């Protein structure tokens, strides 16, 4: 309906056409405040909530906040308690190459307005 914002993400592949979640996670999103044991996890959750306001963010954007190991442990805890949503890397099941594009559109009275070019 008018005013809706829609993300279109077509994929093409030379493989079987099926994707599977991999173990790797590089993109996350704040979901909820949750009680966490580690102080650094509480602080990171507060910072992520404030900086990204529920939008997805890349793990690498947080690299300056703490060491790689601490960041991995902290993110694992926050995902584990349901404070952050992980977006797993997708791989083509048969090992095929995959290409992806993305556009975001806003539905208008006259059709839509593409906001990404």
Folded structure, characterized:
With 117 residues, the protein is of the alpha+beta class. It folds into two domains: 1-15 and 95-117, no CATH class; 19-92, Orthogonal Bundle (Arc Repressor Mutant, subunit A). Helices cover 23% and strands 37% of the residues. It contains two helices and eight strands. It has a three-stranded antiparallel β-sheet, with no helix packed on it. It is flat, with a radius of gyration of 18 Å. The protein starts with a strand and ends with a strand.
The total beta strand count reads 8
> Which stretches of 5+ consecutive residues score pLDDT under 50?
none
Number of helices: 2
Shape: flat
CATH-assigned fold name of the largest domain: Arc Repressor Mutant, subunit A
User: Approximately how much helix is present in the residues?
Assistant: 10-25%
What is the CATH superfamily label of the largest domain? Winged helix-like DNA-binding domain superfamily/Winged helix DNA-binding domain
GO molecular function: aminopeptidase activity; metalloexopeptidase activity
Keywords: Aminopeptidase, Hydrolase, Protease
Protein name: Peptidase M24 domain-containing protein
Organism: marine sediment metagenome
